[in-house]
Design brief:
Length: 274
């Protein structure tokens, strides 16, 4: 574990973050959002708040090379890509709040001498070719139904690839954005700057990167026995993916089975969301 306490600003330096397929989606509701907001609101300007451990797994180079939207930023800017094994809820919540803060800006104003474009480039997406090709700094793996929803409904970005599916998890994403939008309604620019500074400079995390000899599916299940419990449905999906990795079959067979599990769970969550 990195014994240093890092701010969100330092964590989001030359890193990409993705929620892997064995993870549940965004599960926080009003109670957890209110607790998160209270921590920030009560934080004094000269104090910091310990937010916990972020557990990461480095994305293998052969997997990263298949991410067409992200290869350029890894090659040209030496960004490292990580799966978020534990800490997804806190990280997602912070990013949604930052998006709400950016939407509050008007008239090209800076936040703490940083332009809106630079903030968006650091936390939301970076682009090349005049903005045509974009790499999202934080998001879900592409086959996750929350992938398009986060991009189009939360980040307000256009997409030509697919419609955003709605599930119980995407409903939580939308509710979080509405929650924070209501909280900052009517904030003056000075208050927005203070809030931005608290989120990016005063929330402190430890970073723990899982080594290759640790089974991340088991680690995920063990870690998530803390906090908001995993549902039986979430535990079952994680267990099936774990078992799919244990079969003595060709890699392409195991990948096909993993895709089938993900497709099945997409349909389940979509219908539950309806």
């Amino acid at each position: 574990m990195d014994t240093q306490l890092l701010t969100l600003s330092k964590i989001f330096t030359e890193r990409l973050f993705r929620i892997p397929d064995y993870q549940r989606g965004y599960a926080w509701t009003t109670k957890q959002l209110q607790d998160f907001w209270n921590d920030i609101a009560q934080l004094e300007t000269d104090r910091n708040h310990y937010t916990g451990v972020l557990t990461l797994e480095e994305v293998p180079s052969e997997v990263l090379s298949s991410w067409d939207d992200d290869c350029w930023i890894a090659d040209a800017k030496s960004y490292q890509a990580f799966y978020v094994v534990d800490g997804q809820q806190r990280l997602t919540t912070a990013i949604i709040l930052l998006q709400v803060i950016l939407e509050c800006l008007s008239g090209g104003k800076d936040l703490n001498y940083t332009s809106e474009a630079d903030i968006r480039r650091k936390f939301i997406y970076d682009s090349k070719d005049g903005g045509i090709s974009r790499s999202y700094i934080f998001g879900y793996e592409r086959d996750n139904p929350s992938y398009e929803f986060l991009k189009t409904k939360i980040f307000c970005e256009q997409s030509s690839t697919a419609c955003a599916q709605e599930t119980i998890y995407t409903q939580n994403l939308e509710q979080a954005k509405l929650f924070f939008s209501e909280k900052v309604k009517g904030f003056e620019h000075e208050s927005i700057e203070k809030l931005y500074r608290k989120v990016t400079q005063q929330l402190l995390f430890n970073i723990f990167t899982i080594s290759e000899d640790v089974d991340v599916c088991v680690a995920f299940e063990t870690m998530n026995n803390r906090g908001k419990p995993l549902s039986y449905l979430e535990l079952l999906k994680n267990r099936l993916i774990y078992l799919s990795l244990k079969f003595d079959k060709d890699d392409w067979e195991k990948k096909k089975l993993r895709r089938a599990i993900n497709d099945c769970w997409k349909a389940i969550y979509h219908n539950l969301g309806r």
